Amino acid sequence: MSRVYNFSAGPATLPEEVLKEAADEMLDYPGSGMSVMEMSHRSKDFERIINEAEETLRELMEIPSNYKVLFIQGGASLQFAMIPMNLMKNKTADYVVTGQWAKKAWQEASMYGNAVKIASSEDKNYSYIPDCSDLMISPDADYVYICENNTIYGTKFKTLPNTKGRPLVADVSSCFLSEPVDVSKYGIIFGGVQKNIGPAGMAIAIVREDLITEDVLIGTPTMMRYKTYMDHNSMYNTPNCYCIYMCGKVFKWLKKRGGLEVMKKQNEEKAAILYDYLDSSDLFKGTVQKESRSLMNVPFITGDSSLDAKFVKEAAEYGLVNLKGHRTVGGMRASIYNAMPKEGVIKLVEFMRQFEEVNHV
Ligand SMILES: *Cc1c(COP(=O)(O)O)cnc(C)c1O
């Protein structure tokens, strides 16, 4: 077997131990004689799987009891619509636009009400996080929205914005479970799971109970009301059973490794290896302002697009794959989520050094 180091932004690398465990249980989920894929979502076995997944996540994130954990299909992008449909009672919400995903969420919300762009970093191709300590919050804003880690641009909020009492809604797709968070500071934390947790096809939304009401925008489908998920333990209809099962395994894997404090420390170590090299290299440069650097997504360039292409191609031959950057940034991007081992980052830097020696004039 020859597994590569996969630096994809998402769907992304998963812990090898988890994949092996799932492989072992593929034909016979212990005692059931069937695969989780073949199992009724109303069965005792699956009920245990979904409840344990939620419990472990609650433990990992220390989620307060007045927050609901909802498993929702449609990925993070469906949340871009569900959030305004469920929360925009005054038909106004404030958006901090720090990249493509925040922009998409803002555009989506604009279809349902007055989505106000209160800050942006578009002026410098989203290479930094704007100062959000004293934002011009709209007087009747139902919530303030951020994308906490910008997957494409490699920036991360280091302090949360001052929302002046409005609920904070945060897309954490690409930093989910990468470090401890204080859930009580948020109204909603949500993310697609395919970046840092599990397979594609699902989002997890952690929603403060008082924000889940029947008072939603007219025409909001049953399947797009948070209340539907809350009232039916995320099983009003058939959920993404296999994804929930895999996420549950990853939660246990994180717990076994010591939880989110330990993940944070390991993620800082991994990111430092790469950033330290980038700061010392004469060939490669990071594209993000230092204070805004993400621990999860690290974009870098040589400044010469044909050399970038050569790097991406030769790295793949060396077993380091999916390093091509997003088309709006160019160059390269290394996504180094929880499941990327430190050895993968060391090997990447080793290869970058070699490449620099040969190609730098
Ligand atoms: C990938 C990503 C999304 C989109 O996720 P889908 O599940 O494909 O809808 C949204 N936000 C962020 C920050 C992402 O990284």
Task: Describe it.
This protein has about 350 residues and is an alpha/beta fold. The protein has two domains: about 15-255, Type I PLP-dependent aspartate aminotransferase-like (Major domain) (Aspartate Aminotransferase, domain 2, 3-Layer(aba) Sandwich), CATH 3.40.640; about 260-360, Aspartate Aminotransferase, domain 1 (Alpha-Beta Complex), CATH 3.90.1150. It is about 35% helix and about 15% strand. It has nine helices and 14 strands. The strands form four sheets. A seven-stranded mixed β-sheet has the order 2-10-9-8-5-3-4. A three-stranded antiparallel β-sheet has the order 11-12-14. β6 (about 150) and β7 form a beta hairpin. α2 crosses α6 (about 240-255) and α3 (about 75-85) runs parallel beside α4. It is globular. The mean pLDDT is about 95. Pyridoxal-5'-phosphate binds near residues 147, 151, 174 and 195.
Which features would summarize this protein structure in a list?
Aspartate Aminotransferase, domain 1, binds pyridoxal-5'-phosphate, Pser_aminoTfrase, 7-stranded mixed β-sheet, 361 residues, 34% helix, 9 helices, Aspartate Aminotransferase, domain 2
